[in-house]
Write a structure and sequence with these properties.
By secondary structure, this protein is of the alpha/beta class. It is 36% helix and 29% strand. The chain contains five helices and six strands.
């Protein structure tokens, strides 16, 4: 006896993800910064959310959508966590703001610390949009 596995069309899965995002207000604001694909039910989530909670809500609920086989969220970031990760590579006297992966570094660089080195360290943090690192040093 042969067993057939019913699969759901990827277009339907993607539409359910869109509807889920539209139905949760914090994610609704994030939707322009999110990308998602489905290939035979294997969903990949990419982009940025403003909050850890929004990211968690998305990652926790997408697997419950009918037809979803797996979810890869390795390239889905939230600004709250990203701010802490960037803060770990910054020298004393500097501060950071993050907005959907765009990083603004402010404050005063300590003597002997080069701006270029700080920027390169920040760009190396996963989730930082390397083309969107801005400095506003005093």
């Amino acid at each position: 006896m042969e067993t057939t596995v019913k699969t759901r069309p990827d277009e339907d899965i993607l539409e359910d993800i869109r509807e889920f995002i539209r139905g949760y207000d914090p994610l609704k604001r994030d939707r322009g910064h999110l990308q998602y694909t489905s290939d035979k039910g294997h969903v990949v989530l990419i982009g940025h959310t403003r909050t850890t909670k929004s990211r968690r809500v998305l990652v926790d609920n997408v697997p419950d959508i009918p037809g979803v086989v797996s979810v890869d969220s390795a390239h889905l970031y939230d600004d709250e966590s990203l701010r802490f990760e960037v803060g770990r590579v910054l020298p004393r006297g500097t501060f950071v703001r993050v907005n959907y992966g765009t990083v603004v570094i402010t404050g005063t660089l300590p003597k002997g610390v080069e701006e270029k080195a700080v920027i390169e360290a920040v760009k190396a943090v996963p989730g930082v949009r390397a083309d969107k690192v801005v400095t506003e040093f005093i």
